[in-house]
């Protein structure tokens, strides 16, 4: 599962990456987690509010830290 977190380095972006990584490890799900900080790259996904989360090329979240339940749902669908 390829997961990208889009954000310019804000605290919510860092928290989102940490939360996804924590849950993936707890669930034993192998993910390729990548942080994208370049505004041009973020805009290419059409994300106007960060953090944004892209899974396997599809934007699944934008704006605010996603909930634990939401992340678990994403990982369960892997």
From TrEMBL:
<keyword id="KW-1015">Disulfide bond</keyword>
<feature type="active site" description="Nucleophile">
    <location>
        <position position="13"/>
    </location>
</feature>
<feature type="domain" description="Thioredoxin-like fold">
    <location>
        <begin position="1"/>
        <end position="75"/>
    </location>
</feature>
<feature type="active site" description="Nucleophile">
    <location>
        <position position="10"/>
    </location>
</feature>
<dbReference type="InterPro" id="IPR005243">
    <property type="entry name" value="THIRX-like_proc"/>
</dbReference>
<keyword id="KW-0676">Redox-active center</keyword>
<dbReference type="InterPro" id="IPR012336">
    <property type="entry name" value="Thioredoxin-like_fold"/>
</dbReference>
<dbReference type="Pfam" id="PF13192">
    <property type="entry name" value="Thioredoxin_3"/>
</dbReference>
<keyword id="KW-0413">Isomerase</keyword>
<protein>
    <submittedName>
        <fullName>Thiol-disulfide isomerase and thioredoxins</fullName>
    </submittedName>
</protein>
<dbReference type="InterPro" id="IPR036249">
    <property type="entry name" value="Thioredoxin-like_sf"/>
</dbReference>
<feature type="disulfide bond" description="Redox-active">
    <location>
        <begin position="10"/>
        <end position="13"/>
    </location>
</feature>
<dbReference type="GO" id="GO:0016853">
    <property type="term" value="F:isomerase activity"/>
</dbReference>
């Amino acid at each position: 599962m390829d997961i990208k977190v889009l954000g310019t380095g804000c605290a919510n972006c860092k928290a989102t990456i940490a939360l996804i990584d924590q849950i993936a490890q707890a669930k034993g799900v192998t993910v390729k987690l990548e942080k994208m900080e370049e505004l041009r790259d973020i805009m290419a996904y059409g994300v106007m509010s960060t953090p944004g989360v892209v899974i396997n090329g599809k934007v699944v979240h934008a704006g605010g830290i996603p909930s634990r339940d939401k992340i678990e749902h994403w990982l369960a669908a892997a």
